[in-house]
Amino acid sequence: MIKKLFILSILSLSFFYSVAQHAVITGSVVDTLEKRKLQHSVIMLIRSADSILVKSARANAEGKFELPNLQKGLYNLRISYPRMADYVRDIRLTDSSHFNIGAIQMETKANLLNEVIIQAKKQAITLKGDTITYQADSFAVKPNANVQDLLRRLPGIEVDKDGTIKAGGKEVNTLLVDGEEFFGDDPLLASKYLKANAVKEVQVYDKKSKEEELSGIKEGDAKEKVVNILLKDNAKNGYLSTLDANSDLSHFKNIGGMAGMYKGKLKAAVFGFNSNLNKDSKASASMSKLKGNDYDVIEVGDDGSTVMISYGGNNDDRFSPTNGLPDIINYGAHFSDKWNDNKLALKLNYRGINNNVLDRNTSKNQSLLPNGTNFFSAGNSTSDNTKTGQSLKGNVNFKLDSLATLQISFAGSKNNTLGTTTNTSETRGTTGLFVNNSNQSSNGTSHANVFNGNINYAKKFAKRGRTLSIDLQPETKNSNGLIDNLNVTNYYDANGVVNRTDNQNFLNDDSGSETSFATRISFSEPLNKQFTLQTAYSFKTVASNSHKLVFDKSLNNKRIDSLSNNFDFNNFSNIGRAILQYRAKKFTLSGGAEATQTIFELNDLDRNNKFNRNYLNWAPQSNLNYKLGKNSSLSLNYNGNTQQPRLDQLQPIRQINDPLYQIVGNPNLKPSFNNNVGLNFNTYQQKSQMYMYAYIGYGFTKNAVVSSRSVDNVNKTVSTFVNLNGSNSMYAGASYNKSFSKLHFNASLNLNYNLSNSVSILNNRLNKNTNNSISLRPQFSYYGDKVQIDYSPSATFSNNTSSIGAINNGKSFNHNHEISGNIELPYHTEFNTSVSLSYQPANASFSTPINIAIWNAYLSQKMLKAQELEIKLSVSDILAQKIGYNRYVGGNNISESTNSFIPRYVLIGLTYNLSGNFVKKDNK
């Protein structure tokens, strides 16, 4: 069945291509005066509707040229040759027409000097530093295409079916417009609503921290990319809005709306949506990541580690469950503007949520102990959780002068959570007899309030490279919660007879608060033309308390002292940092270290116990960037950091949330040290339209903090923590992308390899788990004017082994196929279909193969003069093959699970988009 469907899908998509008839333009180019044939003349065919370059060619030795595979429409033909005036002509093509222009007589510029306009054509792709710039008009897209469609045409950039963007193999979580946020920096909003013909250039570069932007000193290999969209002059001011309503007229719905305007620096928008599908509406996908504050948090953990976190990337309001049955309500507003020649700026984001998820799960698990004992566990659970809340984020920016800025950022949120969970589980031994079973239910509420802020003063001095930055950060947190927990666990003897029962009827009362203040001073100084020194000092003080009270409801709410605690925690950290950078013509080299001295005091108020720690953490780093050529670069990075054990890993207190699984801390743990080294290479060739990148990395941890578990004969686990060596990982990957613009075709190949070794203790035996995986994913796409086809197969092989023994051979293999096609039919009608084929063949652990085909399709028609009204009929999971199933093959563990999922549905949708620009023509 699946094979037939696969073949049918390929044939169906091939039909899309065949329905489009093609035209051809031919001609020759000669000199008017000398009557010679002008070899290498440049011929360009531009679509009149949107000024997109559709075809280009060069004349051969006979001066002849041919532009094949053209769609019908109105075009502008331009021919250029050195010292000759450009030839310009409008051409209208009909399907399958052969348009022979004949011999084109070119005039010299000297003869037409008063009439000639000389235009310099930029390269389609350029590289300057770590920034790649694409000229948008050099990449053909269909009429009315959005920025997502344009990005899919750019070599080195990937956009999947959900709109997720990758550039150079790295995620793009920030998309700017003209260097600034476009109602927030979430890529979905600008990429969906802005039109491709409004874009002048697309820039891609590494995401930098605030320190990097200010000082210019690179802090290792960036994990993310930033895309910056530069708009044409006529597109910088406009408005956009949508009303998106989809329903099956019974139960399922996906309704959203938003309205916004942007004029100069002013941006304002409101939005709201309600959905009980795992599929975003246009409004929800676009407005769900609005941000307000974008400073770097000075974060000092209980372990003394310091991490500068971009708070703008903290999307705690984002709610997009992958499992379960959701019911989501979100609403909010955005405002930002600049005044007084951009000297004063304000940004505000308000958000409200009311989200619920109902999920039912089942699980099966087989585990192997060192003595050869096998345990077979099964369980099912039901959870119903609701979260409501509101948040306000924003910042005020003052430009004090041409070199100094002051920014005040703030964020406040209030959230409430209500949840209930019930679950049952059972475990059988090797003989098939019960060793335990349990029934558990819990319900409760929790509340959390957070306020944080940052005051930043940044100054660049007259001496280039000399910078100063000062941050002040206050923060307060408060939380409390009440949870009822009822648990009945039965334990069985070797004959399968109950010999003991644990009954727990507990009330958990948890509350806590935290107040902190931090400051950071950073200064960079150019020592000479090649060397720059960056120094920084930070401190952070944290005062917090934690009250965890457990009461036995069956004993008149008597407090259980062994499970309760009352802690006060005080932390004071000093952080010093020094980085030296050397810049040469071909390369940049930097290196240095960060040292964190931390004192913390933990007071156990119940037991009158004090626990103090005083330690020093080191974090060395180095980075080498080498420019191999105009379009190629190589980088080598090393980072090391000390990681102290977490507070809960150190506390010698037994945590019992489940009688069958208990955790006890170990106060004798040592700090661990992580080492990571990575090599990256990327190159592109403009002439051949080729882009390639590759990377390899290795990391290892000394004195890693790992689990030490003891599992008894009734499968009861008591876990603690120990230090072990032997944890390491290696990763490598490469991608090759090739475009054939004349054929409207793009192909790419991605290869990834991962190897990881992790160690732990199981029943006093060393357990080393080795995980190997390799994946291959090619991608092919055709993007004609009327027809678009994408095909992306992938295959993954993994092998997981355990040193204590294996249930089976630990090998698994799966391959997937993503096929999608889009065809534009007459009368502004569009048909779109996608098929996701997933194959999980049988293996030594699972005798049954799992082959699933998820087929989705929609038919839509656009109406009105500007096609702003769209009526859509969409079907999800046409073959009804969703099963909500996952399985895992490990060395000494195999498991499978199911979860709730949204079944097949048919939606009738109505979308009204109203967008436009206040300026109608380009200012040239």
Write a concise synopsis of the structure shown.
By secondary structure, this protein is mainly beta. 5% of the residues lie in helices and 64% in strands. The protein contains six helices and 50 strands.
Characterise this structure:
There is one protein chain. The protein has six helices and 50 strands. It has 924 residues and is mostly beta strands.
- List the uncertain runs: 6-20, 112-120, 281-293, 300-318
Largest sheet data: 26 strands, antiparallel, barrel
Distance between the termini: 59 Å
In what range is the share of β-strand residues? over 45%
Q: What structural class should be given to the helix and strand makeup?
A: mainly beta
Large-scale geometry? globular
| CA-based gyration radius | 31 Å
Total DSSP helices: 6
Number of strands: 50
Q: What's the overall average pLDDT, rounded?
A: 82
User: What is the helix fraction of residues, given as a range?
Assistant: under 10%
Which key terms come to mind for this protein?
mainly beta; 924 residues; 64% strand; 26-stranded antiparallel β-barrel; 6 helices; 8-stranded mixed β-sheet
Topology:
Blueprint: H1 2-18, E1 23-31, E2 42-47, E3 52-58, E4 64-70, E5 73-80, E6 87-93, E7 98-106, E8 125-128, E9 131-135, H2 147-152, E10 157-159, E11 165-167, E12 170-177, E13 180-181, H3 187-193, E14 199-206, H4 210-215, E15 224-231, E16 238-247, E17 253-263, E18 266-275, H5 282-287, E19 296-300, E20 306-310, E21 325-339, E22 344-368, E23 374-399, E24 404-428, E25 434-460, E26 467-492, E27 498-526, E28 531-552, E29 558-559, E30 565-583, E31 587-604, E32 609-629, E33 632-643, H6 647-650, E34 654-658, E35 661-664, E36 672-685, E37 690-702, E38 704-711, E39 717-724, E40 727-740, E41 745-762, E42 765-783, E43 787-802, E44 811-825, E45 829-840, E46 850-863, E47 869-876, E48 885-889, E49 893-898, E50 905-917
Parallel strand pairs: 1-7, 12-15, 35-39, 38-41
Antiparallel strand pairs: 1-4, 2-3, 2-5, 5-6, 8-9, 9-14, 10-11, 11-12, 12-13, 14-15, 16-17, 16-50, 17-18, 18-21, 19-20, 21-22, 22-23, 22-49, 23-24, 24-25, 25-26, 26-27, 27-28, 28-29, 28-30, 30-31, 31-32, 32-33, 33-36, 34-35, 36-37, 37-40, 38-39, 40-41, 41-42, 42-43, 43-44, 44-45, 45-46, 46-47, ...
